Amino acid sequence: GQQLNQSPQSMFIQEGEDVSMNCTSSSIFNTWLWYKQDPGEGPVLLIALYKAGELTSNGRLTAQFGITRKDSFLNISASIPSDVGIYFCAPANRDDKIIFGKGTRLHILP
Amino acid sequence: DTGVSQNPRHKITKRGQNVTFRCDPISEHNRLYWYRQTLGQGPEFLTYFQNEAQLEKSRLLSDRFSAERPKGSFSTLEIQRTEQGDSAMYLCASSPGVAGPPNIQYFGAGTRLSVL
Fold this sequence. Notes:
The complex is a heterodimer of chains A (about 110) and B (about 120). In chain A, about 35% of the residues are buried. In chain A, strands 1-3-8-7-6 form a 5-stranded antiparallel sheet, with no helix packed on it. In chain A, strands 2-10-9-4-5 form a 5-stranded mixed sheet, with no helix packed on it. Chain A is built from no helices and 10 strands. In chain A, strand 6 and strand 7 form a beta hairpin. In chain A, about 0% of the residues lie in helices and about 55% in strands. Chain B is mostly beta strands and about 120 residues long. Helix content of chain B is about 0%, strand content about 50%. Chain B has no helices and 11 strands. The termini of chain B are far apart. In chain B, about 35% of the residues are buried. The model of chain B has no long low-confidence stretch (mean pLDDT about 95). The interface between A and B is medium-sized, with 25 and 25 residues.
C-alpha cells in the first residue's frame, strides 16, 4: 500500500528560528497541500501546490512540490508563538480524497 | 459565509449508545467529507458526498456507521452501539468540487466523541 512519511514528528525551537519539515511518499501525487491544526480545532489550509517543482510562499511560509512528485517540504521563517501547532502534509490526485501525514508538532520554547 | 459548522463540539456517551453528529458545509459547496482523527494521528478519510450521493466509503466505516446528506446540504454521521474504540475527533470538510481549486477542502472544528 502507499506510504506517507512526515518528518520530523515534533520540533522544539526558539522563537525567531526558521523551521523546516517534509513529507515523502511511495506514490506520485498531482497535488500537495499543507494544513495547520490548532488544539481542539479543524485543520486550516496554508498552501496548495499543483505543479512539480512549484515553489509557493504565503507570508513567512514557503512550500515546494518535489520534482519527482513524491515529496514536498514546508519552511517557516522567523517563527513566532502563534506558529505553535500541528502541521500536516496532505497529498492528493485530482478529484480524489486527500491523504494526511501523521503531522509535525511544532513547539516554541519561551 | 460562516465556514463549516459542526455540532455538537463535544459528546460524551456510554458504550452501546447511539450518537449522531451534524455538519453544515459552506454554502454552495457540493462536496462534503467526513474524517476521523485519533490522538497523535492525521485525519483519516471515512466517506464523502457529491450533493446527496454518497460516492465513496472507507473500510474504516464499519456497519455501525452511517452517513446521510438527504438534500445535498447538511450531513449527519450516526454511530450505532458505540464502542470505546470509537472515541476520536470526527471532522467534516466541504469543497466546491470542480467549481474551485482542485482538492482543497475546508474543515469544521470537529466533534470530539468520548465513549465511556
